[in-house]
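Reviewers asked in the last cycle whether our approach scales beyond single polypeptides. To address this, we selected a multi-component target totalling 593 residues and predicted its structure end to end. The input consisted of the following lines:
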Amino acid sequence: MIWVALTGLGLLFIGVPVAFAIGLAGLVGILVADVPLSIAATRMFTGVDSFVFLAVPFYILAAEIMNQGGITTRLISIAQQATRWLRGGTAYANIGASVLFSGISGSAVADAAALGRVFISEMPKEGYTRPYAAALTVASSIIGPIIPPSGLAILIAAVSGQSVINLFLGGVVPGLLIGLACAGIVFIDALRKRVPMPRPAHTGDGTVRMIMEGVAVATLPLIIVGGMVVGAYTATEGGGIAVAYALVLSLFVFRGLDMAGLWRAIMKAARISASVYLLVAASSILSYALNLLGIASWISSAAEMFADSPVLFLFAVAFLMLILGTFLDIGAAILIFVPLLMPAVRELGIDPVQASMVVMITLAIGLVTPPVGVVLFVVMRVGRIGMYPLMRALMPFLLAELAAVALLCLVPEFSTWLPEKLNP
Amino acid sequence: MRAIALMIARALARTTEILATLIMIVVTALNLTQVGGRYLFNTGFSWTEEYMRYLMIWLMMLGSVACIFRAEHMGIEALEHLAGPRFAPLVKSAVYSIAAIFCVVLLVYSWPQALRNASQVAPASGIPMIYPYLALPVGAALMLVQIALSWVAGFEPEHDDLSDTGGSA
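The resulting structure, written as structure tokens, was:
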């Protein structure tokens, strides 16, 4: 076991791409367990040969199409319009845009890159400090993978046998809770007059059109999740419908997309899907190897220690995932650890949806912290800002988000209420 | 020498990413056919799902070849940044060459696996299973070629790499 961990982490830190580092660690594990290596090829194939995983590329494609079609700038102006009258309005707009954006992309990195480019140059013009603008973008970006449609929810569903619908629905309240946590910090700063008023609004023309466009965008997640809830289609087919909807919207409603842009969007989505699939395939080699080496019994004996206190177990999981999330890719972490954790979760009588939300959010927080915070790096690059000032400005937001995580651990209803209500 | 290597590396990346893009289009069309078919004609096409799953395996292997040249496989790039702009491509080639060990193992073991499955067919669509299984050795071999070429030709990321949606995250 120690060799597997050393290989994986060693390769990861010298810069071997995650998928290959994980695959090689898996190969070492298979060698140590004295099983023929040929099993690796089989595991790799069966690991990705799944109808549920098939949903991921479609959501990636839908987001790419929306991006190329110039939807981001519209989302931002909608959010800004709504918060014009508040002190710190543009800061709230940043959070609101993340919530809207999460309904199409389901990716924190996409959210931070797209919104960061606009907000980090606009907010300082109103009087925010640059680190504050960047920190807020970073902090609110993790709403992206939590509110449906969510790529991470699909991954968790596929490896743990839960329904995608429940995980999609389960993410709504926790995602909004994270948004509220960030907004709370902005509110405190507004009380202390440390954030400025927004600049006066443009004249009212175009407002009606803007609202119509906002409604059109916000309809997408409703169509997808709604269709799945009533059983009209599966998550994978919902992905296809998301692509169709994004196409219609970008080609005919916003008219921001030409054929060249469309081709670029599909090609980009194809490459991203390929690298995600490779990661999934490699992870299934590693998780097979870890099982050969008996990690399951190790985990379940660790879980026994928490037998009389499931909440404590959730906190332990959250702590573990926070640490793992700081240096491990979030998709890989889910693929490797969720299947190991879920039996213990069920044994302790914890609702799997609640546990999944805790895992998803704590891992996502890892995206915004060093040493390996993908979102952090993207925003440092987009906003041309150093890590130290950014981390300092980020601290209060991170603390608020950790408080939200604690709430999610303590109160299962935050995660389970909506799925139980809509999909009993 | 470098010019030829660059030309081949570009051609290989271009070809594989175009094939991956075409597969993406076909898979999306099949997916919509599946939903449409169920509602319009009241028949579930059971074969569409198998086609989609197996095509995605080809997309994974072909797209991963292009991702090497475009430097899009996610990883920690601290060492490259330390090496400075001049040596960064060499460091990248070096770490990808470690990654190549994985491709070698995959190539060696997936080829006989494909042949073993030559006589089987998929239950719903009747596709001979050798076709999906062949994606693994073909892709692994092409990735090895792309990694070898990178030592001479370097890498060519797409310009607007900040719009990167970073996959599942």
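Chain A has a mean pLDDT of 88. We regard this as preliminary and will revisit it once experimental data from Aim 1 are available.
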